[in-house]
Structures are given as structure tokens and as C-alpha cells.
Design brief:
mainly alpha, 74% helix
């Protein structure tokens, strides 16, 4: 999602599929390696980011002004869209703010857990059948 957002914000002006895919694959590989070393932090940040995206997408379903990413790219390629509506950047700012808030809340809750509770399979280990 971060790669698509970067392409939506400024790399679309190059009109290059190669740049689009290189940026997205590069970011995916980079975050996959980081997620291996920082699993819990990656889960917290990614769920906060995805949640903030869907909140903004839900608001835009009623308020408008936040078209799908690939629709924007196609409109720019076709020459129909020269400038992106400032409302779009407002939605992006809202996503960042909500992602930060969601991450902070989740990190605070995670840090209050006991060490054995932090393991993702702890509940399965203690389950009674």
C-alpha cells in the first residue's frame, strides 16, 4: 500500500510502469525483511495503517473525493486528470493521523501485556479442549 501511495502522490508524473513495479516490489521486499526482525511491531503498524485506510475509504464512500488508486493512474495516463483534487491529500493526511493514533494505542496495550502473552500462539497453548 505504501508503494501505491508513493506512486499516487508523485511518481505518477513519470508515466512509467517500470518505476511503479520497482518501487512497489522494492518496498515489499524491504518491509518483508524488516517484518522478519520486528514481527510484533510490523503487525501493529500494518494493522493500524490498513485500518486507517479503510476508515478513510468508508468516509469517502459517503463524502466522495477519494477515488481508487488505479482509477487515478488511468485518468492521469489518459490525460483526463491533470491535477489531483486537494481533497485526496486531505484523505491521505487523515490516514497518516489515524495510523499514528492506532499504532500508539496498540503499542501501549502491547507494552502492558506480560511477556508470555505477547507470543501470538499463547492462547492456543493455554486452551483447554
Amino acid at each position: 500500500m505504501l508503494g501505491v501511495m508513493i506512486n499516487e502522490m508523485w511518481l505518477y508524473i513519470y508515466h512509467s510502469q517500470a518505476i511503479f513495479w520497482c518501487v512497489n516490489i522494492g518496498i515489499a521486499i524491504m518491509f518483508a525483511v524488516l517484518a522478519f526482525f520486528f514481527f510484533n511491531q510490523a503487525v501493529i503498524i500494518s494493522t493500524a495503517f490498513i485500518g486507517s485506510y479503510f476508515v478513510m475509504r468508508g468516509i469517502s464512500a459517503f463524502a466522495g473525493g477519494f477515488p481508487p488508486a488505479f482509477q487515478l493512474i488511468e485518468q492521469v495516463k489518459a490525460g483526463v486528470l491533470v491535477n489531483i483534487d486537494p481533497t485526496f491529500y486531505g484523505y491521505l493526511a487523515g490516514m497518516v493521523v489515524l495510523a499514528v493514533i492506532g499504532s500508539v494505542v496498540q503499542f501501549k496495550l502491547f507494552n502492558r501485556m506480560e511477556e508470555h502473552e505477547k507470543h501470538p500462539y499463547d492462547r492456543n497453548h493455554n486452551a483447554t479442549y
